[in-house]
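Q: I'm writing a short explainer about Tail collar protein for a general audience and would like to include a description of its predicted shape. Could you first generate the structure from this sequence?
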Amino acid sequence: MSEPFLGEIKLIAFGYAPKGWAVCNGQLLPINQNQALFSLLGTTYGGDGRVTFALPNLLGRVPLHIGQEISQGQSAGEASHTLTVGELPTHAHPVLATDASATTGVPDPLSMLATSVGSPAYAPAQNLVAMDAGALAPAGGSQPHENRQPYLVLLMCIALQGIFPSRN
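A: Of course. Here's the predicted structure. Afterward I'll give you a sentence or two in plain language.
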């Protein structure tokens, strides 16, 4: 294997960082023992910039390329999310019914919910009335749901030793 660039990040398929590498878990490193790496990373990923600096924390995260609205070192997103009413698309639940007696148990485009005591529940549309608003009350448990794309867990490591990358 050729010598890596200092600060290079690689995916590893085994469970530990090889010699000269460290897991990208956000750990703090002393500047005085890692001056070259600090000169590349600075405090982009954390640390106080006097005594310590941090490695990138890629635990449970997907790396993204720097872009117009994404800056280097920025961390965002969440592993699970609970939807609020304000996040749901605008929609309505209009349900009309008739006060006529039900005549069939099979709905069709010209029938609607009707007054029923037994099995039939639908009747031809006539004498339309609005249903009780309580029949369409909110439902759900407000539990968070998984919010991650399909994934495979691998170890992300950063080179602590290697060739200092030149700009040209």
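A: For your explainer, you could say: Helices lie at 35-41.
Q: Perfect, that's easy to follow.
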